[in-house]
Amino acid sequence: xxxxxxxxxxxxxxxxxxxxxxxxxxxxxxxxxxxxxxxxxxxxxxxxxxxxxxxxxxxxxxxxxxxxxxxxxxxxxxxxxxxxxxxxxxxxxxxxxxxxxxxxxxxxxxxxxxxxxxxxxxxxxxxxxxxxxxxxxxxxxxxxxxxxxxxxxxxxxxxxxxxxxxxxxxxxxxxxxxxxxxxxxxxxxxxxxxxxxxxxxxxxxxxxxxxxxxxxxxxxxxxxxxxxxxxxxxxxxxxxxxxxxxxxxx
Amino acid sequence: xxxxxxxxxxxxxxxxxxxxxxxxxxxxxxxxxxxxxxxxxxxxxxxxxxxxxxxxxxxxxxxxxxxxxxxxxxxxxxxxxxxxxxxxxxxxxxxxxxxxxxxxxxxxxxxxxxxxxxxxxxxxxxxxxxxxxxxxxxxxxxxxxxxxxxxxxxxxxxxxxxxxxxxxxxxxxxxxxxxxxxxxxxxxxxxxxxxxxxxxxxxxxxxxxxxxxxxxxxxxxxxxxxxxxxxxxxxxxxxxxxxxxxxxxxxxxxxxxxxxxxxxxxxxxxxxxxxxxxxxxxxxxxxxxxxxxxxxxxxxxxxxxxxxxxxxxxxxxxxxxxxxxxxxxxxxxxxxxxxxxxxxxxxxxxxxxxxxxxxx
Lengths: 250, 360
Hints:
The complex is a heterodimer.
Chain A: E1 2-11, E2 14-24, E3 29-33, H1 40-47, E4 55-60, E5 63-64, H2 70-76, E6 77-80, H3 92-98, H4 110-122, H5 138-151, E7 156-160, H6 168-184, E8 188-192, H7 196-202, E9 205-210, E10 213-218, H8 225-232, E11 237-241, E12 244-248
Parallel strand pairs in A: 3-8, 3-9, 6-7, 7-8
Antiparallel strand pairs in A: 1-2, 1-4, 4-5, 9-10, 11-12
Chain B: H1 2-46, H2 54-62, H3 68-99, H4 112-125, E1 130-135, E2 138-142, H5 145-168, H6 174-197, H7 201-211, H8 220-239, H9 241-247, H10 251-256, H11 261-283, H12 289-301, H13 305-329, H14 338-356
Antiparallel strand pairs in B: 1-2
Helix pairs in contact in B: 1-3, 1-13, 2-3, 3-8, 3-11, 3-12, 3-13, 4-5, 4-6, 4-11, 5-6, 5-11, 8-11, 12-13, 13-14
């Protein structure tokens, strides 16, 4: 279980997230939603300690992260930032192997290679295991980065807008995989998303942020016209289709 | 189901095998580089005003012959000097390109070499650390080695601190960093000229000749110190190889993979400045070896720093050894400073990189 207690963080003196309190359980996909600048990405960075919190504590299974080295943290938490434009000239195998870095003391062992192979196979990447990541399609490249994050064997997987640049087919496929592996590896998956319908389709739990605070969180029941109006200041309609909620903007 | 499982297992095995094969290939390439260096060192020892056969070279190394003095004290020191300086510059270039995430970075293009040269000139002219002698091509023999090295290191360090503070600013492009390097180079160049203006004629001649970049200045003591500084920095860089690989993916990814990026960046740049300042203090400015070597290696074996770090050093060594051989033979019996050869070869490559915008 991941617990955030009274978390305050930001850049320099500027405070972006203000007093976050939350609990996350294994095997569940969490969607973080909210307008631009509401502190979603900053929250992920703070959980992974890419930035240090100004105040507050983070616990994994009752243990505070403060006493962990940066390497030990990397064994517990994996973080996939928003896609950057520059992909280095690395091949798929080497890229996934890099995810083993927190576990490798000198050179990769047989076990490290086995894990990398297993993940490449699991994510259906073995046909281009020795191709350059930059030559792959957006969806495939994103799978490689997810494989790299999983190679860390994390307990917590953080993803910042992992499907934004992908076409609908790839969006669905990537989110389906994330959902499946959350249960398979029994990890905590926290995804920053913008698309409400994708969130409704693939997440179990929803956290709405506004002005650096958690505005409301809960299961799909909390998603209502009034909440969306308060968060995004837009009018939506919610429809029921095959027992599932969908959001449309009339 | 069973069949499918078996099929998957054989695929798994073949992936792993392919990976091990690619590692083996890259190791063999490393051995090949070592062999090329050995060959060029032997050729370099045999060629000169006194032509020696390969047999004579080995003979005069193993036992005392009439050629032993020339081989041991002139040819071998020179060849080893080229190998050590080339390796130092090559590895420094690879590290600088990585930590600054800048394919155009190198000791020469960032002005680090020029900073070191100014520091060394300062030690020679102002601190009187250089005793000038002129015999043949050797115009300067530096006696207070440590003073010159420390002074060169301070010069290089100043440049690195400026470059680092610039790179910590957000939104500064790789090209802007290189422009800053150009500005720093000309700053240190004019500072060196300023020193020369107040120096005696003899010192001016000495420093001008000295800044050319010439391997002939390497003696056993210089080589010992270059070997020491190279070894220390190389071991440090080699242990950081996985961290460098993580750095390729950007600061956030590197951090989340457990890299202390600020420490890595600062310590690597300082170590690079150190290794560059030692060879610049002894041999003068040698351009472009540090820029080209990592790019050639990247083209051949990729950007895995487990190989890129050692092989950039090897390729730098090979490049400088061959350049020095050319410098000694093109206009024979005149010996050109090797800096002229590397700049002639390096400038077109620099333009190519600028236009193609090579990735790391």
